[in-house]
Design brief:
The protein has 279 residues and is an alpha+beta fold. It is built from eight helices and eleven strands. It has an eleven-stranded antiparallel sheet with strand order 6-5-4-3-2-1-11-10-9-8-7. A hairpin with a 5-residue loop joins strand 9 and strand 10. Helix 1 packs antiparallel against helix 2 and helix 7 runs antiparallel to helix 8. The longest helix is centred in the last third of the chain and has 14 residues.
Amino acid sequence: MGPVRSARRAAAVAVAVAGVVAGAAGCGGGASAGERGSDPAKAVRDAPDRLVREGSSRARTSMQMASGGTRVTIRGEGVYDYRAGLGQLQVRLPQDAAGAQEHRPITELLAPGALYMKNRGAGVPADKWVRLDTASLNDGNLVTGGATDPLTAAELLRGARDVTYAGEAEVAGVPTRHYKGRIDLAAAAKAASAGNRKALAAAVKGFGSSPVPFDVYLDDEGLIRKITHRFSFAEQQAAGQPKKDVDVASTTLLYGFGKPAKVELPDKKDIFAGKVAER
């Protein structure tokens, strides 16, 4: 069973998000990261720690899902505190076929080991949050929530393999150096920070041992400006039906480094305790 579908059944996250998938059938300075002669693998693997030292940023996310010749895109925007491991995104789901807005934006709060969602679908009061344990999701929430947690996206780079320097490029007007390679999920999980280790270990089980291709763009200070991961899995269909291959390209753009990123997690009384309806 594919990680998104399993996650939906296990925790019913994203009636909206998982339903879309089903429907879619180093160092403090820039020298080490920026010099062409530096070790590409080291520059990439050092990038998560560089983000933590920087402290915070704004983020834009885009998750494109392709299945059976159909593509849909989920977009998000928000802020992230890398030292605390906390983020907030407003996630917008695709419009329906007629062009009308089908879903209200979902507010997602990202925390070590947890995903909180508001306006996440039928059966949940408007003033309540849904909380999911990311380690309980078969994909470790790499795709289930419709946006890869920016810090998790960076920490995947700790498992970077076969890294090559692909030349210079501009990202939103900022000069960067482009690196590409593949992620060994098991290695990334072992090297991850305590807050992400269990979730990435779950992703290893969900996605298997296949390496995950990536592209990352680092500026002259070694900060990630853009990162894309390409996930693939086979989604289980109804009994007797063949599995469908699903390809997901998750892209995160980071900018506005150092700007305040205040994220407050909901009180326990504001978390929905009932059963989440599926669609």
